[in-house]
Design a protein that fits this description.
The protein contains 5 helices and 3 strands. By secondary structure, the protein is of the alpha+beta class. Helix 1 crosses helix 5. The model has no long low-confidence stretch (mean pLDDT 88).
């Protein structure tokens, strides 16, 4: 699905470049729907990477953390999947398993439709999305270690 696949592509490249000893868990959530509720609830920190309609230039990358993520998901809750990410976050909230640290890395699509590869603008944004994820994780790690007594 052309640019709809950008999240899976970012995850694939990030996982390939990450040490096998890492504590990170990579999941291509594509069409897993309700089965994602358990892995989301098991996380203390969650980063979701997805094509996101934000009304900006195609290929733009934006990071939404915590409540900003929740607002972005509620505002754009439409999905081609059985259940939306917003629904999954609500399920986690209702079961008191919402990850304390959570973020959405959104990439503005240029084209959503049948195709075999990302459009050039979105393809060019993949390294930036990976860099944003690394910065986000590093910032969260700094905050965690700073609060240890």
């Amino acid at each position: 699905m052309t640019d709809e696949a950008v999240g899976a592509e970012v995850i694939r490249r990030l996982e390939a470049a990450t040490s096998h000893n890492s504590l990170l868990r990579f999941i291509d959530g594509g069409t897993l729907s309700f089965t994602l509720a358990a892995p989301i609830g098991d996380c203390s920190r969650l980063i979701v990477v997805d094509a996101a309609a934000m009304g900006v230039t195609p290929g733009s990358v934006r990071v939404f953390e915590g409540d900003a993520m929740d607002r972005q998901l509620k505002a754009h809750a439409k999905t081609v999947h059985e259940i939306s990410l917003s629904d999954l976050m609500d399920m986690a909230r209702l079961t008191d398993t919402l990850p304390a640290r959570r973020a959405l890395v959104g990439i503005e699509p240029a084209f959503i439709g049948w195709g075999e590869r990302l459009t050039p603008l979105v393809e060019a944004s993949v390294p930036e999305a990976i860099a944003r994820i690394r910065r986000l994780l590093a910032g969260w790690d700094e905050e965690s270690s700073a609060s240890v007594i």
